[in-house]
Every structure is written in C-alpha cells, then in structure tokens.
Write a structure and sequence with these properties.
Length: about 325
C-alpha cells in the first residue's frame, strides 16, 4: 500500500516535471546542429571509421593509428568518424585532462589524419565529465575535434546523422553498478529520447542525400560480446528502416563486423577495434541476420562513396584489408 502510494506520487511528480521541462525543452532542441563538409575528391566522399580507442597508445592503439595514417593518405580522406568510447576508462576529467593529448592528439599524428574528426560519445565517455568532451575549448587544443551529442554532417553526396545512443540503454540508469554516469543535459530521460527521435525522424525525412548514414556508439545488430541493443532495436531501428538509411555504423563491440539481415536494407557495420580487442563473439540474436565478416582483433574501416557506388574495407592492425564490399545505390534499394 505504502509502495503503491509512493509510486503514484512519484509518477505524478515526474508528470509535472515532464510538463514543465517540455515547455522549455521542446522549442530549443527541435533541430539538430548541422555541419556542411565539402568533399576533396571530385564528387566522391572518403572517410575512416574508428571506435573504442583512447588508451594512450596501449593495446595496439598506436599501431592502428599508424596504419590509419597510411590508408588515409592513400585515399586522401575527407574526415574521420569516431563511434565513441573516446577516452578510457572514464572519459575525460575536464577540458585540461592530458589524456586528450596522450590518447588523441599525439596518437593520431599522421599528416593525413589532420582532418576533421566527427565524434559521438560512448558509455565510457559518460563516466567522466561529458561536458568537457563537448566543450569548444577542446577545439583550441586540437582543431580536429568535433564532438556533439547528436548532429548532422552534410556532404555533397551523403548525409551522416550522429546519434547519442548511451541514454537509450536502461541498464546505465537502473543498474549502474560501481559506475557513475554524468547525466547532465539528459534528464528527464524520456523527454530527451523523445526529442532526439523526433529530430532524427524529421531530419531524415527532409534529407535529399543519395546516401544516408547513421552513426551511434551502440550496436543495433551485432554478434559482438555486447549483442544487439534491445532499446535501439525497439526505438531507433524502425526510424532508420522507415527512412531508407543505407548504413548504420557503431562501435561498443571491440571488433570489426559486417552484418546484414533478410528483412532489412540497412548494412550494420561495427568499427570498435581501435585499441583493446580479442573478445569472443556471440550468435546473431535475430535469425534473419547473418554475419558477412567478423574480426575480433584490432583494426578500422574505410568508406568510399560516389553518387551511385559505395565501397567499404575493413583493415587489421597491420593495415591489411580483411574484407572488401562494394554495392550500388540501386542494388541496395532493390536487394530486398
Ligand atoms: C574529376 O572528375 C572528372 C570527370 O569525371 C575527371 O575527368 C577528372 O580527371 C577528375 N579529377 C580528379 C583530380 O580526379
Ligand atoms: C597487437 O596485435 C598483435 C597482432 O595482431 C597481436 O598479436 C597482439 O596480441 C596485440 N596486442 C594486444 C594487446 O591486443
């Protein structure tokens, strides 16, 4: 009885809070920040994707970085995408944290990697001072750094939608174990997520880009050690399906992986092998999904897009291409 009453009053309080916050939050957060990125290469877009990396060079992070430099030079990349978990174990302590130099600036030092880095946050980043990673001060320390919670990068032929996936995961709120998460700017969570999905839906529906790519930290379909993220399967995947997204790219699982599912046109690409790796894989949870490629050691991915064709390659710690895949816009949209 007591329990019941307190639940009820909690519910009413949260309703009141929600309505108060909604009034203020909805109008200001209804559009995602947009960046336009002109491509270097005559109508083709080229970039690298790396995730789960910041360990001060350890666990082969430096070796991967050297190979990224070589491939980036060969491809003349436009930018780098980071799928999050930028700084281990617990994000940054503040804007002056030396880990920013030790795990980012000095590690990815190749001239070919001196391009814009578009970065999302991972769950480990949320265990530190999240606002430090979002702070424009960091761009003074290294102008490559561009990290926001959710945002859009518009290029001439592709649009990339970066989505803050950590707040979707219930476990971090309900059962955080010994970890402390920095939820400033996220609460009340239901409002934050509803706004994010609404903004993403409207941005995707307005997009005229040939290629639509969504980037998040957590996997939707993956056989890596973390498995599918059920909250994203329920809430994010239907939005991506509805708006004909071509690729979903994530980290979180410390591996390289290419998954495709019979009932989906989306290619699920995991690039989370920037440093510590070698964890065992699971079986696909959805029997309609199949693994085209899986590597549980370190490495990274490159993506090259032209108006009609996409080509992605996964490389290992030695820069050796392990898996190449080519597809055309037409094929992807008729392969159902
Ligand atoms: C750019 O594209 C045009 C037309 O396809 C081609 O003739 C030219 O060689 C390309 N330039 C470079 C630098 O790739
Ligand atoms: C670094 O890469 C090499 C080659 O794949 C591997 O043998 C070694 O175990 C890796 N080191 C770590 C710490 O993962």
């Amino acid at each position: 009885m007591v329990n019941h009453l307190s639940n009820k009053s909690l519910f009413i309080t949260s309703l009141l809070l929600n309505s108060v916050f909604c009034t203020f939050l909805v109008p200001v957060s209804s559009t995602l920040q947009r960046f336009h990125h002109h491509t270097n290469n005559n109508g083709s877009l080229r970039f690298l994707v790396i995730g789960d990396w910041g360990r001060k060079g350890w666990y082969n992070q430096s070796q991967v970085a050297v190979q990224m430099g070589i491939i980036a030079d060969r491809l003349n990349i436009d930018f780098v995408v980071s799928t999050g978990d930028n700084f281990y174990n617990d994000g940054l302590t503040g804007v002056q944290d030396p880990a920013f130099d030790e795990s980012f600036k000095y590690v990815y030092a190749a001239p070919s990697l001196q391009k814009q880095w578009y970065t999302v946050l991972g769950n480990h980043d949320y265990r530190g001072d999240v606002e430090a990673q979002l702070d424009p001060m960091l761009r003074k320390r290294d102008s490559r750094w561009r990290c926001l919670r959710s945002f859009i990068v518009n290029t001439d032929i592709a649009e990339l939608f970066f989505v803050d996936t950590t707040p979707f995961v219930e476990m971090y709120f309900d059962d955080p174990k010994d970890h402390k998460y920095d939820w400033r700017g996220i609460l009340p969570r239901e409002v934050y997520l509803a706004n994010l999905l609404k903004d993403l839906r409207s941005a995707l529906s307005e997009s005229k880009a040939k290629w639509k790519i969504v980037v998040g930290h957590h996997g939707i379909r993956t056989t890596g050690h973390h498995c599918d993220t059920p909250e994203l399967v329920t809430h994010l995947l239907p939005v991506l399906e509805e708006h004909h997204v071509d690729f979903y790219m994530n980290g979180h699982d410390h591996c390289l992986e290419h998954v495709s599912c019979q009932n989906s046109k989306i290619r699920f690409l995991t690039s989370g092998a920037g440093s510590k790796a070698w964890l065992e894989a699971n079986k696909p949870q959805d029997e309609k999904c199949g693994v085209k490629f899986f590597h549980h050691g370190q490495g990274f991915m490159s993506m090259k897009l032209t108006k009609n064709n996409a080509r992605f390659v996964f490389y290992d710690v030695f820069g050796k291409p392990l898996h190449r895949w080519r597809t055309s816009l037409k094929k992807l949209h008729t392969s159902m």
